[in-house]
Write a structure and sequence with these properties.
mainly alpha; 313 residues; 2 strands; 13 helices; two-stranded antiparallel ribbon; globular
C-alpha cells in the first residue's frame, strides 16, 4: 500500500521509485565456495611458498651447522656446477615429447575406432579405458612381472628362439627406454582416448552428411571437420599430459629407479633423490622452483601459440 501511495503521489511523467536490490544474492555464490577456496589456497599456497623459501636456504637436517641463508647459491650451483641437472632435464624433455606425441596419436586412433557403431562397442570401450583406472604402482608391478627375465616376455621369446635366456630389458641401456615408454603408453593412451571420444560425441552428424553429399572423402572429412572440432580438446589434453609426464615419478622409480647408469633419471627423480637420500632440501627446493618456472613458461607459450579457446579464423 505504501509503495502504491508513493507511486500515486509522484509527479506525472516521473518514473516510479525502484526497489533496492539486495547485494546478498550476488555475493551468495562466493560465500558458498569461500570455505573450499580457502582450504585449497592453504593446501596449495603454503607448499609453494615453502619451496621458494627453502630454495634460498642451505637446509640439511643432518648438517644443521651449515644451515642458513644461501641467496641464489643453489640456483648458481644448478646451472653451473651440476652436470646431472642438465642431463636429467634433457631426458625429461625427451620423455615428455615422446610420450605425449605417441599417446596423442594412439589415443586419437582408439577414440575414432570406438566412436563407430559395431557389435561389442561397449566392451571395447571398457577395455580401452580400463588401464586408466589402474594405479601407477599397480601398473609398475604388472610391467615388472612382464619384463622379469625369468618369468616374463623375454623368457617366452627365448623359448621361441628369439633372444637369450636371462635377458632383462630394464637393465640394458639399449632397451630400457623403449621398455619404459611402452609401459607408460599402456597407462597414458586411455587418457587421450577418453577426452577425445567425449568431444567426438558432440560433433553434429549433419556436418558429415553434408560433406558426403558434396563428395568429400573420409580423409577430407577428418581434416576439415573432425580435427578442427577437436582442437581445444587436443590442446588441453596434451598440455595436461605434458605436465603430468614431466612430473612422472612412480612408474620410472618402480621399474628402473632411474637406472641403468642414470639412463632413465628425470628431473623429478633427481629432486627426490637429493631430498630423500641426501637430505639436501635447500638444493632440492631450488631444482623444484626451476622446474616450476619451466613448466609455467612453456605452458603459457604453448597456450599462446595454439590459440586455445580462440577462433581459427
Amino acid at each position: 500500500m505504501a509503495q502504491a501511495a508513493a507511486v500515486a503521489k509522484a509527479p506525472q511523467g516521473a518514473s516510479p521509485p525502484r526497489r533496492r536490490k539486495s547485494a546478498t544474492p550476488r555475493r551468495l555464490p562466493y560465500l558458498l565456495i569461500a570455505p573450499a577456496g580457502l582450504l585449497m589456497l592453504g593446501f596449495i599456497a603454503y607448499p609453494v611458498i615453502s619451496v621458494f623459501y627453502y630454495s634460498l636456504q642451505h637446509f640439511n637436517p643432518t648438517k644443521p651447522w651449515r644451515n642458513g641463508f644461501a641467496g641464489l647459491d643453489n640456483f648458481v650451483t644448478a646451472f653451473t656446477n651440476d652436470p646431472d641437472f642438465w642431463r636429467t632435464l634433457g631426458f625429461s624433455l625427451q620423455w615428455v615429447v615422446v610420450q605425449v606425441v605417441l599417446q596423442l596419436l594412439l589415443g586419437l586412433g582408439l577414440a575414432l575406432v570406438v566412436n563407430q557403431t559395431f557389435v561389442g562397442r561397449g566392451m571395447a570401450r571398457a577395455l580401452v579405458f580400463s588401464p586408466w583406472a589402474v594405479s601407477g604402482v599397480l601398473t609398475s608391478a604388472v610391467w615388472m612381472l612382464l619384463y622379469n627375465s625369468q618369468t616374463g616376455i623375454t623368457r617366452y621369446l627365448a623359448d621361441m628362439g628369439i633372444g637369450t635366456y636371462g635377458t632383462s630389458w630394464l637393465s640394458d641401456t639399449a632397451t630400457v627406454f623403449p621398455a619404459v615408454v611402452t609401459a607408460e603408453l599402456w597407462r597414458g593412451v586411455p587418457f587421450f582416448a577418453i577426452l577425445i571420444l567425449a568431444d567426438l560425441q558432440s560433433v553434429s552428424k549433419d556436418l558429415y552428411e553434408a560433406a558426403e553429399v558434396d563428395g568429400a572423402s573420409r580423409l577430407r572429412q577428418f581434416f576439415h571437420i573432425t580435427l578442427p572440432h577437436l582442437k581445444d580438446a587436443i590442446i588441453l589434453s596434451t598440455l595436461l599430459r605434458a605436465v603430468w609426464e614431466f612430473n612422472n615419478v612412480d612408474l620410472l622409480y618402480t621399474l628402473t629407479g632411474g637406472g641403468p647408469a642414470g639412463e632413465t633419471t628425470t628431473l623429478p627423480l633427481r629432486i627426490a633423490s637429493i631430498a630423500v637420500d641426501s637430505h639436501d632440501f635447500g638444493y632440492a627446493s631450488a631444482l623444484t622452483s626451476i622446474a616450476f618456472v619451466i613448466l609455467l613458461f612453456c605452458s603459457m607459450i604453448y597456450l599462446r601459440l595454439s590459440k586455445f579457446g580462440g577462433d581459427d579464423k
